[in-house]
Amino acid sequence: MLPMAAAFGLALTGPSALAEEVNIYSYRQPELLAPLTDAFTAETGITVNVVHLDKGLVERLVAEGRRSPADLVMTVDVGRLDALVQADVVQPVKSPVLEANIPAEFRHPEGLWFGLSARARVVYAARDRVPEGTRLTYEGLAAPEWKGRICTRSGTHSYTIGLVAAYLVHHGEQATEAWLAGLKANLARKPQGNDRAQVKAVWAGECDI
User: Fold this and answer.
1) What's CA 66's distance to the chain center, in Å?
2) What is the pLDDT of residues 55-96, one digit of tens each?
3) How many separate domains does the chain show?
4) Whole domain around residue 77: which residue ranges?
5) Residue % of the chain over a pLDDT of 70
6) Are residue 89 and residue 165 in the same domain, yes or no?
7) pLDDT, tens digit, for every residue of 134-169?
8) pTM of the predicted model, to two decimals?
């Protein structure tokens, strides 16, 4: 299995308009952030306002420019954090607390973003069609034994791009090209849907992994 990449992170966009509140733009639903933001408010007395967006977060920040009310961006996947950096809509943070608690490999070298948590990219398998005890690794998914048995998300989704990027870093360009070719040959259907859609496809017998 590949090492986990930072999957949930924050970036600072600008100073808060009011010291009594902090405005967050996020791809994560407010209810998922509530335990964190509620604890912060209880400890500091600062109100946290969360704006949830399904898409277009970077475009919105670019359009708002210096008038943006956002103080922080909290998003999922290192690719989306990098998109914020490339769009030049975040500023560096120098925080001894963050630097002491977050390893260097999980934060931007210039402090433009910090990873807060990690995500395990798990592989689901059909109990009745994949023998118990089978060792499944991402590298092994390109093996001929899985031909026509794999379902996955679209290759253009940020999660998939992040996975391929991690594979590239760990194994090199030539090995990654060979792995992608093998993985493509093993697909049971055209890549589609979200994570839940893949699990449903395994349950329905469309694929085994």
Assistant:
1) 27
2) 899 999 999 998 999 998 988 888 888 889 999 999 998 889
3) 2
4) 6-118
5) 91
6) no
7) 999 999 999 999 999 999 999 988 889 889 998 999
8) 0.74
Are both 147 and 112 inside the same structural domain? no
- 37 and 112 share one domain: yes
Q: Is residue 182 part of a domain?
A: yes
Let me know whether 68 and 102 are in one domain: yes
Tell me how far apart the alpha carbons of residues 184 and 93 are, in angstroms, rounded to a whole number: 41
Q: Would residue 123 count as lying in a domain?
A: no
pLDDT value at 18 more than 90: no
Between the two ends of the chain, the Cα-to-Cα distance in Å is: 15
- Token representation of residue 68: 């943006």
The chain-wide mean pLDDT, for the chain, equals 87
Q: Are residues 110 and 145 in the same domain?
A: no
Residue with tokens 């469309």: 206
Annotate the chain with three-state secondary structure: CCCCCEEEEEEECCCCCCCCEEEEEECCCHHHHHHHHHHHHHHHCCEEEEEECCCCHHHHHHHHHHHCCCCEEEEECHHHHHHHHHCCCCECCCCHHHHHHCCHHHECCCCCCEEEEECCCCCCCCCCCCCCCCCCCCHHHHCHHHCCCECCCCCCCHHHHHHHHHHHHHHCHHHHHHHHHHHHHCECCCCCCCHHHHHHHHHHCCCCC
Contacts of 157 (CB under 8 A, 6+ apart): none
Q: Judge whether 27 and 80 are in contact, CB under 8 Å.
A: yes
